[in-house]
Write a structure and sequence with these properties.
By secondary structure, the protein is mainly β. The chain is built from 1 helix and 11 strands. A 4-stranded antiparallel β-sheet has the order 2-11-6-8, with no helix packed on it. The protein has a 3-stranded antiparallel β-sheet with strand order 4-9-7. Strands 1-5 form a two-stranded antiparallel ribbon.
Length: 144
């Protein structure tokens, strides 16, 4: 287990928790009432800031229920919260449905997953090892 300090920036913020013993992510809650129109993109406040240990990130991901039932998703999935960021966590939501979607204070709007990261040693080279796929891009491996 890794400890992550959480700072509540608002009296309305809700300390996140895992919803089950096997859950990968913990839920983030809105601290505001708002409506998201069809095709609209909004940044939703959580009222929380985290102290993430170096070597880790928090990934912000959609909640499957909001996606399938309402067409609501996290736009930059997964959103990355770096270990050196200390500001308020905000969730960028997009409404892919044709209906207005209402968020109420306290609603669960996204899930957050703690992930270990590795920084690479980026080396400039004129030659790359060849592979069977080579430079073939999108869809080049087929659909079956």
């Amino acid at each position: 287990m890794i400890n992550i300090k959480i700072k509540q920036l608002s009296k309305d913020s809700i300390v996140p928790k895992y919803q089950s013993d096997g859950a990968s992510g913990f839920d983030l809650h809105s601290i505001e009432d708002l409506e998201i129109k069809s095709s609209e993109i909004v940044a939703v406040k959580t009222g929380l800031a985290f102290e993430i240990p170096k070597g880790y990130e928090i990934q912000i991901r959609p909640r499957s229920g909001l996606a399938i039932k309402n067409g609501i998703s996290v736009l930059n999935t997964p959103g990355t919260i770096d270990s050196d960021y200390r500001g308020e966590i905000m969730v960028i939501l997009v409404n892919f449905s044709k209906n207005v979607f209402s968020i109420k204070k306290g609603d669960r709007i996204a899930q957050a997953v703690l992930s270990q990261i590795f920084q690479a040693n980026l080396v400039v080279s004129n030659n790359l090892d060849s592979t069977q796929r080579g430079a073939s891009g999108f869809g080049s491996t087929g659909i079956q």
